[in-house]
Specification:
The complex is a heterodimer of chains A (256) and B (296). Chain A is α/β, with parallel strands linked by helices and 256 residues long. Chain A is built from ten helices and ten strands. Chain A is globular and about 65 Å long. Chain B has one domain.
Chain lengths: 256, 296
């Protein structure tokens, strides 16, 4: 397996944001993670990237335990993410944003001089290829703050890919996008998977999640309540209850 | 060129060291009101080296650069744990601390029948190396210009490579930079140290031109001006702070029509630029446009 969470919990005081969650993602899989607002999806991503230390539980990548590692060490081993609210270096060019993502985690002291002063730091890299893949090549030298919203989203994903990840965590990539954009995004996510990257997708746009994921899990109040293929999930009564609520037969209607 | 013109040009060049120093800290995300501290450390270190210890001028420059870099690095280690307003106040406090220490710092020796060396509030006179070596003001100005060119070339090369990209990314959002594996604290400390070294180089060049220095010359207003030069000139290129110095010293201080009203014009200009162009005249967007245009 590619990514494995075992008994992961994160408590903030008395709030169990994530409570004993175990997940296994296979190599080359698009794995969906859904759940109502506040169900612990983003916290799970933050636990995988190392932004939060878990209260208990472990996370491993290709069998290697990541739990004690810092964010940049996990990046170097192949964990990358995008953010729900786009985070770019607005005053750096598109190419520079990608260069930082690609080289930031490399601790190459021996190349200090070439890294700081030698020209053409962008040429010995796959940044050009990534720019073409993301359809941003014509914007290479533009400042990131001058891009359109859609271009920023593409740059955000390209930036995550620049660190050459094995697992890419997408935190609501379709936020603010139309249904049509969502379909395009689905194709792009598949194209990323075809580059050999396994994908964990957090998303509220159900058309997108149901359409492209191989398997998915559902969180509610920090606990995993279901796991399976999209069609399993759609027919699962617990999931329907979490999203739509349950009919409470014992209670009298208020206006009766 | 007459001596007056040379003095004005030399002042522009000397202030540029301070302006570039404060500008580097702006790039790494901090507002420093205290770069005059390293200018002062450089001036005193260089002055003591040539006047008291009778060392060669080149060695004096190196010692000033080392002292500036060392002090700035040491101050940065605790100060870089702060950010925003807290960092600014710490930088200000350190600069005033340096000035207070220089007010009581005495290190006088008899050299060739002269009593020379720092004498607290009375200042430090007879830093006479350029007279002893028989260097005329025009030649000394060219030496200052040479040092400034080396500093600017270093920044330009670091922009052409990717060093400045590292500095700018940490300055813009250090948490995002850290999330991408950058050691943001190390980048900030190294940048502060380099900025201190650049200010100290300017300081020692200033001390040898002025021949007399005193702690009162390194007050807060110098630091505020150096900071404003980068803000006016622009964050996009190392020519930004230089443009700021040219506008202030080259025009406002020197032209007669502004005499007496310099600070009013200068303050107004700072306010105007910050409203109209928050990242200065030569901001990143402008520089990116020019670069695209140059490439065709």
């Amino acid at each position: 397996m590619m990514l494995k969470l075992e008994g992961m919990s994160k408590h903030f005081g008395g709030v169990k944001a994530v409570d004993d969650v175990s997940l296994t993602m296979n190599e080359g899989e698009i794995f969906g993670l859904i759940g109502p607002n506040g169900s612990g999806k983003s916290t799970t991503i933050n636990l995988i990237t190392g932004l939060y230390a878990p209260t208990s539980g472990t996370v491993s990548l290709e069998g290697r335990d990541l739990t004690a590692l810092a964010q940049h060490e996990r990046t170097a081993l192949g964990v990358a993410r995008t953010f729900q609210n786009i985070r770019l270096f607005g005053n750096l060019s598109v190419a520079e944003n990608l260069w930082v993502a690609q080289n930031g985690h490399k601790q190459r002291r021996q190349h200090f001089i070439s890294r700081w002063f030698k020209a053409g730091g962008l040429q010995d890299t796959n940044i050009d290829e990534l720019l073409r893949f993301s359809r941003l090549h014509s914007k290479k030298d533009s400042l990131a703050s001058a891009l359109s919203f859609g271009e920023m989203r593409r740059l955000e994903m390209a930036r995550a890919l620049a660190s050459n990840p094995k697992v890419l965590l997408l935190d609501e990539p379709a936020a603010g996008a139309s249904i049509e954009d969502g379909q395009l995004l689905g194709e792009r996510i598949r194209a990323v998977r075809d580059r050999g990257v396994s994908i964990l997708l957090i998303e509220h746009m159900m058309e997108l999640v149901m359409g492209i994921t191989d398997r998915m899990a559902v969180l509610n109040f920090g606990r995993k309540i279901a796991e399976g293929t999209p069609s399993d999930i759609q027919s699962n009564p617990d999931v329907r209850a979490a999203y739509l609520g349950t009919k409470n037969k014992n209670k009298e209607p208020a206006d009766a | 060129m007459d001596v007056y013109t040379i003095t004005v040009l030399a002042n522009i060049a000397l202030f540029s060291f301070l302006a570039i120093s404060a500008w580097l800290l702006l790039l790494v995300g901090e507002i420093s009101f205290g770069q005059q501290a390293y200018f002062a450390i450089g001036a005193y270190t260089g002055g003591v080296s040539t006047a008291v210890l009778q060392l060669p001028f080149g060695i004096a420059l190196l010692m000033a650069i080392a002292a500036g870099g060392l002090f700035a690095g040491l101050v940065a280690i605790p100060a870089m744990r702060l950010s925003g307003l807290h960092f600014s106040i710490a930088s200000l406090a350190f600069a005033e601390l340096v000035r207070s220490v220089l007010n009581v710092f005495q290190y006088q020796r008899w050299v060739d029948g002269y009593l020379t060396g720092p004498d607290g509030v009375n200042g430090f006179r007879d830093i006479r190396w350029i007279y002893d070596a028989g260097i005329d003001p025009g030649t000394y100005f060219l030496m200052i210009l040479g040092c400034l060119s080396v500093v600017m070339l270093g920044v330009v090369m670091a922009s052409y490579g990717r060093g400045m990209t590292i500095v700018r990314s940490v300055g813009e959002n250090r948490r995002l930079a850290a999330a991408q594996g950058m050691n943001a604290t190390r980048v900030r400390i190294i940048t502060a140290s380099v900025a201190g070294a650049i200010a100290a180089l300017g300081g020692t060049l200033y001390a040898h031109m002025a021949t007399y220095i005193e702690p009162a010359q390194f007050g807060l207003m110098i630091g505020v001006h150096s900071l404003a030069y980068g803000l006016i000139g622009g964050m996009g290129t190392v020519f930004g702070p230089l443009l700021g110095v040219l506008i202030d010293i080259g025009a406002l201080e020197t032209l007669r029509i502004f005499s007496g009203y310099r600070m009013i014009f200068f303050g107004g200009l700072v306010a105007l630029v910050l409203i109209m162009r928050p990242r200065g005249i030569l901001d990143e967007a402008t520089v990116a446009k020019v670069q695209r245009w140059l490439r065709g």
